[in-house]
Prior knowledge:
This protein is an alpha+beta fold. The chain contains four helices and eight strands; from the N terminus they run βαβββαβαβββα. It has one domain (8-171): Gcn5-related N-acetyltransferase (GNAT) (Aminopeptidase, 3-Layer(aba) Sandwich). 20% of the residues lie in helices and 26% in strands. Strands 1-2-3-4 form a four-stranded antiparallel sheet. The protein is globular.
Amino acid sequence: MIENTQEPILFFLRSSEQFIVEEMLHFAARFDEENRTLQEFPTLNCYHELYGYKEGDIGVYVMIGSEAAGGAWVRLAKEGHGFVNETTPELVIGVKPQFRNRGVGTLLMNQLMYEVAGLYPQMSLCVRSSNPVVSLYTRLGFTEIKDTRRTTQDRDLEVFTMLKVFTTEERKNKFL
Length: 176
């Protein structure tokens, strides 16, 4: 579905690529639609600070041509908005607007879930209820956790937490 003359290439996110994590978090939070910056929301620091240096950090990103089109990662973040428990990593995925609705998110998610399923029994995420990506999460097996809908104080948005519990087959790394 990715329409471009250049093939997308997946890479693992390394600690030296902190700039990609910060850039993709900007798009994950949809700040591009609100003309906001990551610096305005210190509650999101738990998703990017010292990426790659904390136990549990696993991530991928996709390059199309010479541009990072999107990135997805998980980390164990007790202070995360989609926190479930101390052993469930929380997902963040961001795709640049010009690459949305072209299969980039699905590509990122499939690879990341393959990696995460080998290490964790489940993963969570916090999502804005109006975000169209909810349908992708549902298609990939995420379900809404009951009684987690709430309104954010800093942006007055309705959000909720979703959980993906990996099947036995997925846990055996037979995901793709």
